[in-house]
């Protein structure tokens, strides 16, 4: 199976509806962080704005932001908290071109669907066959290894099992990972696995609980805080395996976003949620494929800032978004949040990672 990048077909701007459409209107921001009334909020899809006689694509987008018109007819997508007094924000609540705003949802369509109006098993559940999804993912990741920017969003379940932890490390070492988003727990239990060979006090291979094992993760946090950084902790305690070690060795960014429930946290965990979002957004701007594994909140957060497209070397291409979880609720929740381009796979995360690594690393 050979991977072929879907081709983008831009709108036909010679049509009368585009030629006769007005130029976009803007409103000036009076108070930093507060958009003018009637602002236009962005979607996950490619959006064009008519400036003068020219339709301009917003190249770096994300859902639920505003569009700021800059000098030289440049468009900048900004979160509400980041708009500044004096910014000119695009106004309009229609998306059909009538106000100079066109939201384009069919750029990657491959003709008319021949699906029947009534059919069984059209949703994504534990009964769905995922063989084709796996085959497509293998080919996609081989392509992205050379030409893309792959973001992984990991929950701690990825390191609760020895084999899945090793599989994820192998994927990092073989170039299938460009950045990892996670929380305090993923890094903590990964380092616990390296230092104690446990996760939450259970042996990561046998799953047997160790005496006083419930201390292990907080012991690791305490030692890491004493060391002052994860890199120093790895050196001080001769850590030689695991995801954090592999990221440190390979120079892969590990963005750890904190939460209210965190123990510690580890050094390097970003406790300010907006600072964490900004750090994640920096990489999502470059993302071409995103995989969210066994972490509902982090996957939804990442999905909400991921557009359905990316402009690479002047070409518009799709951004591939995957959500993998053993819970049907979790994978469908991301779809419910507006990330309609997501591919959901309902499976045990340990099995998913082992299967992925065996087919990609040969």
Question: Which residues form runs of ≥5 with pLDDT under 50?
Answer: 117-122
Tell me the structural class.
Answer: alpha/beta
Distance between the termini: 16 Å
Tell me the radius of gyration: 22 Å
Q: In terms of quaternary structure, what is this?
A: single chain
How would a crystallographer describe the biggest sheet?
Answer: 6 strands, parallel
Shape: globular
The average pLDDT is 92
Helical fraction equals: 25-40%
- Report the sheet-strand fraction: 15-25%
Q: Could you spell the SSE succession in H and E letters?
A: HEEEEEEEHEHEHEEHHHEHEHEEEHEH
Strand order of the largest sheet: 12-9-8-13-16-17
Number of strands: 17
Number of helices: 11
Give an account of the 3D structure:
The structure is a single chain. It is globular, with a radius of gyration of 22 Å. The chain has helices at residues 16-19, 131-147, 162-173, 184-196, 216-227, 230-236, 243-250, 273-284, 296-304, 328-336, 349-360, and strands at residues 25-28, 47-51, 54-57, 66-69, 75-78, 88-91, 101-103, 150-154, 179-182, 198-199, 202-203, 254-256, 289-293, 309-312, 315-318, 320-325, 342-346. Strand 10 and strand 11 (202-203) form a beta hairpin. A six-stranded parallel β-sheet has the order 12-9-8-13-16-17, with helices on both faces. 39% of the residues are buried. By secondary structure, the protein is of the alpha/beta class. The longest helix has 17 residues, at 131-147. The protein starts with 15 loop residues before the first helix and ends with a helix. Helix 5 (216-227) crosses helix 6 and helix 9 (296-304) runs parallel beside helix 10. The model is unreliable at 117-122 (pLDDT under 50).
